[in-house]
């Protein structure tokens, strides 16, 4: 594996999830700081890595240039999904969720 391949893979499967966890926690706690006590397992799963060492992660975030592209791709997909919700496109939302369920099952991700 080349250093570039390593950075690209880590950007998607490690570094982007850390950004998402931190921004998700920021977003939720801006609504109500004590909201975490209402969260269940999915909330805990989404925020677990937000407690990781800030000094380690700031270096990783600023060093891995592949991370910006990964974050942009995520943002495009997220915006596309939000558009489906805004437009009330139930069939497409259902198809997307079904496709992701099949992808998760096929790949074993998150098992």
TrEMBL record:
The protein depicted here goes by the name Prephenate dehydrogenase
List the coiled-coil residues: none
Instruction: Enumerate the InterPro entries for this protein.
Output: 6-PGluconate_DH-like_C_sf, PDH_C, Preph/Arog_dehydrog, Prephen_DH
Q: Does the keyword Transport apply?
A: no
Q: Outline the extent of the Prephenate/arogenate dehydrogenase domain.
A: 1-111
Recorded hits in Pfam families, A to Z, give: PDH_C
What keywords tag this UniProt record? Oxidoreductase
**Which organism was this protein described from?**
Candidatus Caldatribacterium californiense
A single GO molecular function term of this UniProt record? prephenate dehydrogenase (NAD+) activity
Provide the GO biological process annotations: tyrosine biosynthetic process
Q: Where on the tree of life does the source sit, at the highest rank?
A: Bacteria
């Amino acid at each position: 594996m080349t250093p570039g391949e390593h950075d690209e893979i880590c950007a998607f499967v490690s570094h982007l999830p850390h950004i998402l966890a931190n921004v998700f926690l920021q977003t939720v706690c801006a609504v109500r700081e004590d909201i975490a006590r209402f969260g269940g397992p999915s909330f805990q799963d989404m925020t677990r890595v937000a407690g990781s060492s800030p000094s380690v992660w700031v270096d990783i975030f600023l060093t891995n240039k592949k991370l910006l592209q990964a974050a942009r791709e995520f943002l495009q997909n997220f915006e596309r999904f939000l558009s489906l919700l805004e437009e009330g496109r139930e069939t497409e939302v259902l198809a997307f969720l079904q496709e992701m369920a099949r992808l998760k099952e096929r790949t074993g991700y998150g098992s």
